[in-house]
Amino acid sequence: MSLSIPQNKQNGIGEVLWVRITLIILGMLFLGAVIGLPLAAVFTEALRKGVDAYMASIVEPDALAAIRLTLLVAAIAVPLNIVFGIAASWAITKFEFTGKRLLITLIDLPFSVSPVISGLIYALMFGAQSLLGSWLLEHDIQILFAVPALVIATVFVTFPFVARELIPLMEEQGTEEEEAAILLGASGWQTFISVTLPNIRWGLLYGVLLCNARAMGEFGAVSVVSGHIKGETNTIPLQVEILYNEYNFVAAFSVASILTLLALVTLMLKRMVEKYGAKTKKITT
Question: What is the enclosing helix (H) or strand (E) of 39?
């Protein structure tokens, strides 16, 4: 006896053709309106006065300082989040301990707290009127309105990205391979390097890309703790805001295009990671 499958059931969830076409068109129109048009507007406005004006806006000293500071903050915050994300994911998925659910909740905290609020919290903590701020002032240590505050605020708003990518992946993989490696005499570090890390490498890289993109584009938290000092504490988003408020629209969109290009490169890398990771998983299975 042979079973025949209706044509409209052979494409996954069984929707009819006109429904699929309508959903695809709606999705494409929505993405075009919400993402495509703004992206086009950024580059159109940036190049409105020609390539020379665009390049002049990019190489302007304050713009270069903002680009360097953005890359510096991301270069410090992302590795810190990698270490924290791996450690937290390892602890949550490999061990049972009191406070485990609290740790998971705290990891999700930046998703529910406004970045501006987190920036205000750090401003209160390190401000001159707080106990910690007074102590820092007495010892000539500056955190607020300087690079350390930018790094701390960026670490806070980005630390869920690596951990949240690794936790479900490590839960799915279980602990059998690590237990086998330890029974065979491997140390904890050898087990991590030879067993755990190869299994999570694509998820880790994916989380790092997301974390890096968020770190470079963060505005709210760093805006509160930066002090908006030109050439010193302005990252790219803050520099764009200043230029826009000064009605220097070409320069504002030119600097914004750098951030947009970095985001597009991140998305391309993310897509390559997903594709290569899926291909590798298919070969190994």
Answer: helix 37-46
For position 285, what pLDDT does the model report?
58
Q: Do residues 126 and 77 touch, judged by C-beta distance below 8 A?
A: no
Q: Could you tell me the pTM of the whole model?
A: 0.83
| Closest of 22, 60, 26 to residue 252, by C-alpha | 60
Spatial separation of the C-alpha atoms in residues 63 and 182, rounded to whole Å? 52
Instruction: Encode pLDDT of 166-214 as tens digits.
Output: 999 998 888 888 888 888 888 888 888 888 888 888 889 889 988 998 9
Tokens found for residue 204: 């880790």
* Interatomic CA distance for residues 26 and 122, integer angstroms: 42
110, 112, 160, 252 from 107: Cα distances, Å? 7, 10, 5, 34
User: Which one, of 74, 118, 116, lies nearest residue 211 by Cα?
Assistant: 74
CA-based nearest residue to 75, from 163, 151, 156: 151
